[in-house]
């Protein structure tokens, strides 16, 4: 992968990118959506039993997806996380690089703000380059998506890559287009059923 500096990438839309990802899922791939607008758009893009929607656990989408990837190495796992959430859990990147799951793709939705709490700027908006941080953490297969076509190319490439992949995307500050049903037990049970480890409710 070639790490294009974030300033050279197109500002895209989170719901559009999430919809493009969901449209490419054909083999019951699992998707973990980070808190807030990231999982709101995942819910709206097409509810699937293999989707896990985070509620109130800021920064834990990548660690949870890592656990799923290690538990089910034959299943492709995607994790969608906001830039603010990732900045709270940067240590997860080096852990993922060390464990090197072959089936994990991470997408960082970077709008440069903590959108849910009032649009305060994140360090990533000013001084920090998330993809450069990922590469320095040992995730060499990391890149910024230049535009929507490049995002789809990187997603497709990640599906056949034997190692963890991180894709950074610059997005606008539009809110999520839906709202996840806030029922933690139902979310957990449906996801476990979707992964084949629990009978449906």
Quick synopsis:
By secondary structure, the chain is an alpha/beta fold. It has helices at 14-23, 37-45, 61-71, 83-87, 91-99, 130-136, 148-158, 184-194, and strands at residues 30-33, 51-53, 77-82, 104-110, 113-114, 120-121, 142-144, 165-170.
User: What is the count of DSSP helices, taking H or I runs of 4+ residues?
Assistant: 8
Roughly how much helix do the residues carry, as a percent range?
25-40%
Structural class: alpha/beta
* Global outline: globular
By oligomeric state, this entry counts as single chain
Largest sheet: 6 strands, parallel
End-to-end distance: 42 Å
Average the pLDDT over all residues and give the rounded result.
Answer: 89
The low-confidence parts are: none
> What gyration radius follows from the Cα positions, in whole Å?
15 Å
Number of strands: 8
SSE layout and pairing:
Layout: H1 14-23, E1 30-33, H2 37-45, E2 51-53, H3 61-71, E3 77-82, H4 83-87, H5 91-99, E4 104-110, E5 113-114, E6 120-121, H6 130-136, E7 142-144, H7 148-158, E8 165-170, H8 184-194
Parallel strand pairs: 1-2, 1-3, 3-4, 4-8, 7-8
Antiparallel strand pairs: 5-6
Helix pairs in contact: 1-2
